UniProtKB/TrEMBL annotation:
Molecular function (Gene Ontology), one example: ATP binding
SMART domains associated with the record: S_TKc
Name of this chain's protein: non-specific serine/threonine protein kinase
UniProt source species: Citrus clementina
Reactions the enzyme catalyzes: L-seryl-[protein] + ATP = O-phospho-L-seryl-[protein] + ADP + H(+); L-threonyl-[protein] + ATP = O-phospho-L-threonyl-[protein] + ADP + H(+)
Length: 564
């Protein structure tokens, strides 16, 4: 037999695949996808040495997958079937020319050995605290931001029999070859070369590229929280043109399935949008019940099937947006729960120590003792540094390492033996006020963890030295960045950066006032007490004059306690 191409897609064929097809040794392309074929893959198929593309997708095939399929360098797609896996060896998601996604579903399968991508409905293997509730993909394009939405990149160039997983949260499966064009190289990502119309400047980038498939294209939203979602599919016809060429006669017609349900039959992008190069968005409701969302675009043989030069007539999509219709629940993992409890216990212990120290300082618990003994009497089990460590880190408080001067002492840059860059605040121990600030700052900030609060690593109480060890802020303080006399350190902050800094300060204060378990009034907010990290993120510092207030009180009377 001299048959080279056999295409019987979606022809309602029942029964087993005939063995004699394997005797058609000159076959280059065979497509029996989306029928009702049962039984196994014939052993005679191993003789199809000249076959470059084999599509058995979307049938009811059973039994084990022949080993020669896994070792083949052909484009083979046997996804969406009911194969069994009886080996004791684990099987991962194949990458490359063999597509097996959702191909194992028999109860006899040893599913613990089968990767989730190969099981029916693509189950999620992540814990509940890693579920997500939105998904945005720029199909065929790079990672972009449109307004407040970040679209992930989707630039895998292959697609003849392709499964691609982008980490934990989404994947796609593409099936088919453009058999009616006149070249050997298929292009599954298309870029628009014409002017798009009726699209905002913000969304323009979404429609510059698209992913196209000759037959079947399925996107999977993985590890989504269960519930109701809105699926927004972005389309624009960027291949067929409205001109005088043969391409202007092309009609792209395909079906859209959401969660295996047909939601749009015979969808024609050009007709729905009112022309070529015009974006259109179609919204569909979807219910996620097993943490997986399935969006399937399928060419059922309608529309154009043979335009001269590149007959790319299968499903095409520009972008996907998925968003939950409900407020995501707050889920804490066991690890996070332990960390939260540890933080609460640690904060409580520090607060009790602080209260006891202040009471004793004021004479409520006996006679006053020297500041040195009191400070060294703080039983801090973590975050303690020796004076030798601090001197080694700062080169014995070398003036060259001095990065600032505060109301109660100097600040030095240092490097610990493990390479950690630190800032050391050296408080004066000559006054009772300095001692109070030292104790107060430890008590206030050690229990607080927030991106806009400076992080306290620990302290040193040794002899007459009162030292606080913080994370190092590369860009020093906001005061020097804006008003610094030395132009070397003064920064040229554009308005978006200034806005970011202001919002960072506001978030830090909001956390202290509203969100922290221990409510705190800073009482000394000024530009010199706002530090800037290497990315110019604002972090509030200097808690020596801060004051606690009780949560059940709606007002607190205080005064500005710092210096200008």
């Amino acid at each position: 037999m001299n048959l080279k191409t056999l295409i019987l897609t979606k022809c309602l064929i029942h029964g087993e695949i005939p063995d004699y097809i394997g005797d058609m040794t000159k076959l280059k392309n065979i497509d029996l996808s989306f029928n009702n074929l049962t039984g196994g893959i014939p052993t005679t198929f191993e003789k199809l040495a000249k076959t470059n593309f084999m599509y058995l997708t979307g049938n009811k095939l059973t039994g084990p997958v022949p080993k020669y399929i896994f070792n083949s360098n052909k484009n083979v797609d046997i996804s969406l079937n009911n194969f069994t896996w009886e080996s004791s060896d684990p099987i991962e998601c194949p990458r490359g020319s063999v597509n097996l996604v959702e191909s194992y579903s028999s109860p006899r399968n040893k599913l613990d050995k089968v990767h989730p991508c190969l099981r029916q409905n693509f189950p999620c293997s992540a814990p509940a605290d890693q579920y997500h509730y939105t998904l945005h993909i720029n199909c065929g394009g790079a990672k972009i931001n449109t307004g407040h939405t970040k679209y992930e990149a989707d630039m895998e160039a292959r697609g003849a029999s392709m499964f691609y997983s982008s980490g934990q949260y989404w994947a796609f499966s593409s099936t088919g070859k453009f058999m009616d064009d006149d070249t050997d190289l298929d292009n599954y990502i298309r870029t628009n070369t014409s002017t798009l119309s009726k699209v905002s400047a913000v969304d323009l980038e979404l429609y510059r590229t698209a992913r196209v498939s000759p037959l079947s294209l399925t996107y999977y939203g993985l590890c989504l929280g269960n519930g109701n979602y809105t699926v927004r599919l972005h389309f624009a016809e960027i291949i067929f043109k409205n001109d005088s060429t043969f391409n202007s006669l092309g009609k792209r017609i395909f079906d859209i399935y959401i969660q295996e349900k047909l939601v749009k039959k015979d969808f024609n992008i050009e007709d729905e949008a009112g022309g070529t190069g015009i974006p259109i968005v179609k919204n569909f409701p979807a219910e996620v019940t097993s943490h997986t969302l399935k969006i399937h675009l399928y060419w059922a043989g309608r529309g154009t099937t043979g335009i001269p030069l590149r007959g790319t007539y299968g499903p095409l999509i520009s972008a996907i947006s998925v968003k939950s219709n409900f407020k995501p629940p707050v889920v804490h993992s066991k690890k996070n729960h332990v960390m939260i409890m540890a933080a609460i216990v640690g904060a409580s212990v520090l607060l009790v120590l602080l209260i006891l120290f202040i009471m004793r300082w004021k004479g409520c618990l006996g006679g006053k003792v020297s500041a040195d003994k009191e400070l060294r009497g703080l039983d801090l089990q973590t975050g303690l540094y020796t004076l030798r460590q601090i001197k080694a880190a700062t080169n014995n408080f070398d003036p060259a390492n001095k990065v600032g001067e505060g109301g109660f002492g100097s600040v030095y840059k240092g490097i610990l033996s493990d390479g950690t860059v630190i800032a050391v605040k050296q408080l004066s121990s000559k006054s009772r006020q300095g001692n109070r600030e030292f104790v107060n700052e430890i008590g206030m900030i050690s229990a607080q963890q927030h991106p806009n609060l400076v992080k306290l690593y620990g302290c040193c109480v040794e002899g007459n030295q009162l030292l606080l060890v913080y994370e190092y802020m590369k860009n020093n303080c906001l005061s020097r960045a804006i008003f610094g006399k030395d132009t070397e350190y003064r920064l040229k902050l554009d308005w978006p950066t200034r806005k970011k800094i202001c919002i960072g300060i506001a978030r830090g204060l909001a956390y202290l006032h509203e969100d922290s378990r221990i409510k705190i009034v800073h009482r000394d907010i000024k530009t010199s007490n706002v530090l800037l990290d290497k990315d110019l993120n604002a972090k509030i510092s200097d808690f020596g004059l801060a004051k606690l207030y009780e949560e059940d009180k709606t007002h607190i009377s205080t005064r500005i306690a710092g210096t200008m």
